[in-house]
Amino acid sequence: MSKFKPVKAGKIIKVLDHLGFVSVRQIGSHLIMKHADGRIAVIPIHSDEEIGGGLLQEITRDTRTTREEFLDLLNRD
Q: Which fold would CATH assign to domain 7-74?
């Protein structure tokens, strides 16, 4: 089982776009993205900071994707 490495928020947003999520609003430094089926993901956007493995696991759970699917999409660049 592969562990998540820290990733920039922009890369996560691209993955969520690919999965069909769209930005619906931003509250402070947190971007709220929603899928047509009702799934919601919150992405913290802090300049020059990466999102750690624990939060990536939470985002994966919120988006109802498998760890492998999410890692595959992250590594496509």
A: Metal Transport, Frataxin; Chain A (3.30.920)
